[in-house]
Amino acid sequence: MDNKGSSQKGSLLLLLLLVSNLLLCKSVASLPICPSGAVNCQVSLRDLFDRAVILSHYIHNLSSEMFNEFDKRYAQGRGFITKAINSCHTSSLSTPEDKEQAQQVHHEVLLSMILGVLRSWNDPLYHLVTEVRGMQEAPDAILSRAIEIEEQNKRLLEGMEKIVGQVHPGVKENEVYSVWSGLPSLQMADEDTRLFAFYNLLHCLRRDSHKIDSYLKLLKCRIIYDSNC
Amino acid sequence: MGSSSSDPRYVDVTYIVEPDPPVNLTLELKQPEDRKPYLWIKWFPPTLVDVRSGWLTLQYEIRLKPEKAAEWETHFAGQQTQFKILSLYPGQKYLVQVHCKPDHGFWSEWSPESSIPIPNDFSMTDATVWIFVAVLSAVICLIMVWAVALKGYSMVTCILPPVPGPKIKGFDTHLLEKGKSEELLSALGCQDFPPTSDCEDLLVEFLEVDDSGDQQLMPAHSKEHPGQGVKPTHSDPDSDSGRGSCDSPSLLSEKCDEPRANPSKFHTPEGLEKAEKPETNVTQPQGPQSTSVEGKIPSFHVSGSQSSTWPLLQPPGLHYSRSSYHSVADVCKLGLGTAGAASTLLDKTDTRALKPSQTIETGGEGKAAEHGESESFHSKTDQDAARLLPQDKTPLTSAKHLEYVEIHKVSKDGALALLPKQNENSGRAEKTSTPETSKEYSKVSRVMDSNILVLVQDRRAQNLAPFEEPAKEAPPPLPQNPAAVDLASFPAAPSNCRLQLGGLDYLHPTGFMHPFQ
């Protein structure tokens, strides 16, 4: 009897919390736009793109700073850059390399490419945080940025999925993404190998975040402003 | 070995782009109706940067400053190509520049300067209001000034009516300004103002005590001259000189009758004796006492008529050889029996200070001897006496036991013969005052028991004490009226009276009476 009463009370409490959460979420003007669980949440495409661009820009800035920090601290004079060219796991996604190529790709394709890259980085980012934490003398500048990038990447992914749902509603999408297999390299005992693995990962992250940011801006100007930003 | 090629340097174009500066920087001054005017700045991105497709995203920054300023004012404009500046200094020429930067590149160069002059009538509303207020106030001030100028005089006269200045016939203001008092006063008929040293003589003479005379005013004598008080040199009371009779022009003729009833008690040994006599006799000694300077006070005659209440001056025998009579008021005091009246009189005399009297006092202080009288002093004293009289009347009339002394007559030498007006005692009191030469009357030192005036010599103030002592002795024997200091002398031997009376001019009639009883 007591258990039943207490469980009922607990469920009631939980329901109350949920409702209050929903209400609170509605009152907050900032993200997320649509509270979790809401189905008919309509945010304009323009706003979606604006938020996406802001996030992509933010992520790119963070990754760029993180790379610079790592390069300055660990990779000076090691020539890592030479070996890091064209060694990213997302190279297989055949993304456009310059502006002309990007402008010739259809926005649906481009959108799917962006999604693929974003999905490809979920796993690496997670391990990056874990491994940076495990480093002796973990530099906070790198660790904090790594944590932030992981968080924002998830958000951007959600936003992009919404955009795709609005741009191409009803299209069943192939969730194509690249699989990252560089984890053993991050855990190598050899410091040089490990450092190079980190360097490479951070370098690829900076490049891919820049791609995402560029593509999104292109798409925004093309879709929202009709190429007249 | 070394290598023939350097290590490759990898560059990401994204991070090394420095775009061209923005172009077409335009400035526009916008002035909306209800709001403050602002500067609207517009520009275009550089031509080679593909911002339209979104491939590059530029961020802009503008800066502006007044032409003469030294520091630039920088504003970040973000990705917009327009900007509003609100805080502007009117009347200055502003310079504006803009530059841009891609997301991950470098800042471009600053665009060429664009200038725009800010007109002066920027904050027109505030300035106009203040100007309007200033003009209005100026107009109002002008109007007021004009009104005052036109009607100022009449307004001033209405508010502050002119005070008419005194005009005295024969009074030459110019003389006054020059400070020549003698000429001025002579024009007015005054003589010897301020009183000269002759006043001292006059003073002295006022207080002369007539030894021989039965009526002798009490001299303001010093106790040091016990014998002086009894100078026999004074005119014989029987002599006509100084006799203060009603017929005597020098005395207050009006109330001659009354004073007759009140024997004056200014005394000398003879005077004391006379106190024993009936009232008439008593009055006599008083006469001379009060008016010390009979002949010397021709004006007294004049005032005598007026001052009915004045102690009569007994012409003969009443004269003060050397006593200094400070003021006619003092004489009056002598005759006054009531303390209140006396005090009042005293006050009045003191305050009044008939100038001559004061000067006389001062003059008399230094002197104790007979001498010439100053007629001017007389006149003054007359006037003062006349003035005093009316005042005396009021207090006197209110007092019950009014012991008033009239100046019976003025002796030749200027001794005042005082006659007590209503009370024979007062006369006696006066009589007992020893006429002494070179005695100076001072102010009433104190009043005893409301009917006795104690006069004290100014310059011989120290003599008061001795005089007072005997006065204390007097009271016991006098049941009714406490003896004044002067009185004290009475009970004592006549010589004592003389002594003591030197400084104290007023003798209580009872005191006088006592020794004789």
UniProtKB/TrEMBL annotation, chain A:
Residues 1-30 form the signal peptide. This is Prolactin. It comes from the Eukaryota. PANTHER family: PROLACTIN, SOMATOTROPIN,PROLACTIN. The keyword Metal-binding applies. Belongs to the somatotropin/prolactin family. It is found in: Secreted. The keyword Lipid metabolism does not apply. Transmembrane segments: none annotated. It comes from Delphinapterus leucas. One of its GO terms (cellular component) is extracellular space. GO terms for biological process: female pregnancy; lactation; positive regulation of cell population proliferation; positive regulation of gene expression; positive regulation of lactation; positive regulation of receptor signaling pathway via JAK-STAT; response to nutrient levels. Interacts with PRLR. Its main location: secreted. It holds the Pfam family Hormone_1. InterPro entries: 4_helix_cytokine-like_core, Somatotropin/Prolactin, Somatotropin_CS. One of its GO terms (molecular function) is prolactin receptor binding. Keywords: Disulfide bond, Hormone, Lactation, Metal-binding, Phosphoprotein, Secreted, Signal, Zinc.
TrEMBL record, chain B:
It comes from the Eukaryota. Residues 280-293 have a biased composition (Polar residues). One of its GO terms (molecular function) is cytokine binding. Keywords: Disulfide bond, Glycoprotein, Membrane, Metal-binding, Receptor, Repeat, Signal, Transmembrane, Transmembrane helix, Zinc. GO terms for cellular component: external side of plasma membrane; receptor complex. Residues 21-121 form the Fibronectin type-III domain. It is found in: Membrane. The chain crosses the membrane at residues 129-149. Gene3D superfamilies: Immunoglobulins. PROSITE patterns: FN3, HEMATOPO_REC_L_F1. GO terms for biological process: positive regulation of cell population proliferation. Residues 267-279, 367-385, 427-443 have a biased composition (Basic and acidic residues). The box 1 motif is required for JAK interaction and/or activation. The WSXWS motif appears to be necessary for proper protein folding and thereby efficient intracellular transport and cell-surface receptor binding. Belongs to the type I cytokine receptor family. Type 1 subfamily. This is a receptor for the anterior pituitary hormone prolactin. Interacts with SMARCA1. Interacts with NEK3 and VAV2 and this interaction is prolactin-dependent. This is Prolactin receptor. It comes from Neophocaena asiaeorientalis asiaeorientalis. The lineage of its organism: Eukaryota, Metazoa, Chordata, Craniata, Vertebrata. The gene is PRLR.
